[in-house]
Automatic annotation (TrEMBL):
Record-linked SUPFAM superfamilies: Ferritin-like
Signal peptide coordinates: none
Identification of the protein by name: Ferritin
Highest taxon in the source lineage: Eukaryota
Gene3D superfamilies, per database record: 1.20.1260.10
Source organism of this protein record: Chlorella vulgaris
Family according to the record: Belongs to the ferritin family.
Amino acid sequence: MTSVVAPAKDQPTSQQEGRFKESFPGVSTLPLDEVKARRYGETEKGEVNRGTFVRVDYSGDLEQAVNGQIDYDWSVGYALLAMAAYFDRDTVSLPGIAKYFRALNDRAWSDANRMMRFQNMRGGKVRVGAVAMPDSDYFSPEKGDALYAFEVALALEKLRMDRLKALHSLADATDDFQAQDFIESEMSVQAGLVKELGDRACELKRVGTGHGVFHFDERIDSL
């Protein structure tokens, strides 16, 4: 720790071109050596749009993986939107299921936006990649369309859980406790969604592909 004596009034102190000076008004003790060694708060002139002011111990591998998660969440949302459009067709006409998948689409895109805010908060750079084109039809001769679509949605959300676990492992490897806390909160919510979709798939498997799907659609529309 470096002892800092408050300067006289005729010797004003400030940050000059982003670099710390040796003393600060009203501060008696400050670890200046450590601050300068880590270059906290230091930016060069003209680097406002090129560098980052806020990055602290944020690994490049984790930054890249978060960008991959952002792309995955956008792709999941796109697939769920395609499912909603399928069930809204006049030849399918299951409006309750269409409404449910639209809500899941909103949720997936909220997930992506939350990941983007986290990336910016940590001083990373968001790089949005291409979004995969989803299927347009969701029908299986053995399972029908409702059960098949819910099983696809369940698989997508279970894969998201696996990806979050991989992100957590990266954060753990670099002792990034803030990232671990953020990812753990995401995993807690994700586990609830996986359970919900698993319950829906189980219900549809029980009712089969006939009249029971119509009643399932009415019930899910009222939730």
